[in-house]
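Suppose you are handed only two things: the residues of a chain and a line of SMILES describing S-adenosylmethionine. What would the bound structure be? This form records exactly that question and the answer produced for it, so the two can be stored side by side and reused later without any lookup.

QUESTION INPUTS
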Amino acid sequence: MEFLDPKIEAYTLSRTQEEPEVLKQLNRDTHAKVLMPRMLSGHLQGRVLQMLSKMINPASILEIGTYTGYSAICLAAGLQEKGKLTTIDVNKELETMVRKYITEAGFNDKIDFLIGDATKLIPALPGPFDMVFIDADKVNYSTYYDLVFDKVRKGGFIIADNVLWSGKVLDDASKMDEDTRAIVAYSKKVHDDKRVENVLFPIRDGLMIARKL
Ligand SMILES: C[S@@+](CC[C@H](N)C(=O)[O-])C[C@H]1O[C@@H](n2cnc3c(N)ncnc32)[C@H](O)[C@@H]1O
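ANSWER OUTPUT
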């Protein structure tokens, strides 16, 4: 399901900063060689993530769900000079591609790429994080939120992708699949959490942005 009228989307992109060449290439390469290229954030959301990161200017970012590295490169662009982004993915097969593009984007010294199950790796990460981007398996979104919460500094942000889940969040609850139920539960959990302020940003497939009070 497309949320934006295609003509409005085309106009929006025509008035949005172009993708840098390295991201254009990564976008093309992902579509040509990798399964499920729709998972990549893409031009508009990538520019939004980069802009948010530049506004926050974090010293430390955690990304859960690297895929081919597109959003990691967008987010890393807003890091402080000595800042670090840690990104985790369970899929070892994409390692060569991810490392190639991190190098081409010039972020070898800023991005730590960890391979493994994020539910197992996060407890060992020291934090604190100024920004967390949750974009991995939907059934674990609430687990990721709980695992990272105490590692996010006061005033830090937890951003989760796909919270509109192609509109399936509006389906009858009795007909929802496991992923949809998990996404609905996640946005309710964040919305009900008195420890954060939040906004559901209806860009692409929906970004839930929570700021820790
Ligand atoms: C939607 S894609 C990430 C897209 C990427 N953030 C972007 O915008 O270009 C989700 C990724 O989460 C990874 N993933 C799924 N379960 C995971 C887990 N338990 N731990 C770490 N990564 C996981 C998948 O392998 C997949 O690459």
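WHAT STANDS OUT: The helical segments are 6-14, 21-33, 42-56, 70-76, 95-104, 118-121, 141-149, 178-192. The pocket of S-adenosylmethionine is lined by residues 39-41, 65, 67, 70-71, 88-91, 117-119, 135-137, 140 (CB under 6 Å).
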